[in-house]
# Entry
Amino acid sequence: MTKQERATFVINTLKELYPNVPIPLNHKDPYTLLIAVLLSAQCTDVRVNQITPLLFAKADNPYDMIKMSVEEIKEIIRPCGLSPMKSKGIHGLSHILIDKHGGNVPQSFESLEELPAVGHKTASVVMSQAFGFPAFPVDTHIHRLMYRWNLSSGKNVVETEKDAKRIFPIATWNDLHLQMIWYGREYSPARGWDLEKDIITKTIGRKNVLEEYHTKTSR
# Structure
C-alpha cells in the first residue's frame, strides 16, 4: 500500500469501530475541559475523571477557582501527579481568564498557549473538542500508532503531529485523533499488545515493528 492508501484504510477502519467517538475526559464546558486536560498530563484519563468531580464540586468556573488557595487545589488534585505545578497553573490561568478574557476560555491557540501550564497539546484539545476548530493533538497513543502504521517516523509528538496533518484530510482531524486514542488503548497498547486483535497494524504495519513483535512472541 502507498502511504495515502494506508491513511484511507485507517480512516475507514476507525469509522467502523468508532462511529460515535466519545471524548475521554468528562467535562461540561470549555473551562472544565481545559482544567481536565491540564490535569491529564502524565496521568490517566480514568484518574482525572475520578478527581475532577471533587474539584468541580468546589469550583467549576474561574471565579470560584480563584477563591480557593493554591494549596487547597493541590490537595484535591494530588492523585493526578505534578500537583504543585498543576495547582499553580489552574489558579494562575483562572486569574488570567477573568482579567483578560471576561472569565471565558479564549478561542485561539495563541491565547490558550499564553496561559500557565497550557502547552500546544492542551490548547489543541480545547480548540478541537470545545470549539470544533480543526486540530490534531498528538498523545503517546497516536505517536505510537503513527509509527507502527508506517505513517510517521517522527522522533517526537511535534513531528508526528505535522505528519498527521499532512496525511489526513482536515475534515477528519477532530474525530480521527479521538478514534486513534481509543484504538490505541483497546487494540494497540504499548504493553500487552496482541497483534491478532490489532487489525490495522496487522494489515499495514511497519515491517520492523511486525518482525519485532513476532520475535518477542516466539520466545
In short: Residues 84 and 185 are 28 Å apart (CA to CA). The chain is about 60% helix and 0% strand.
